[in-house]
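Q: Convert this sequence to structure tokens.
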Amino acid sequence: MEIWDLLHQAAPIMLKGTGYTLLFALASMVGGLVLGFVLAVARIVPWKFVHWPAAVYVSLMRGTPLLVQIFVVYYGLPSVGIEFSPLMAGVLTLSLNASAYLSESLRGAILGVGKGQWSASYSLGLTYIQTLRHIVVPQAIRIAVPSMSNTLISLIKDTSLVSVITVTELMLSTKEIIAVTFRPLPLYIAAAMVYWFLSICFEALQHRLERRLERAHQ
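A:
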């Protein structure tokens, strides 16, 4: 009963933190998808002056820890006159990080579309951009959904890292309750269950989207 009383006491604060976690995750997903698509296209176009900067960016974001990236954006950039609020810094960093992984999923899916699709489109008089937009990308999205979904689900868990810049999401809310109650084990387990529940919800959306795209393809 003592544990249930503790969880009942902590629930309002943790629910508020969960709301911020969802806000972070959804905003970062949108930003990551938009930038990730741009990067994916930049990496497959035949122009090296576009390809190489995108490749270096993807390598940099995938090859450095997300926590270090958060510190650079929030604590480092103010030294050169660029300053963000904790909320904006968190969303921006998560979007930049996720875009690198999402771009690779999209790039692989685009390259996975048969070359015959490109040849058939060119024979019909479509340009490179028109072929990419109307023929290749719709097919590539269906291929990329599983790997993209994995990245987006991981993004939910990565939001816990923004607690280091004093953003009151689920993890920081949990830490604040622990500082008052001195009961870390049940509260950390409760936070883990919330992250798991959110991941299950997004997995369900992923499976539903996969089935819908598969029906449309058939």
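The chain is about 85% helix and 0% strand.
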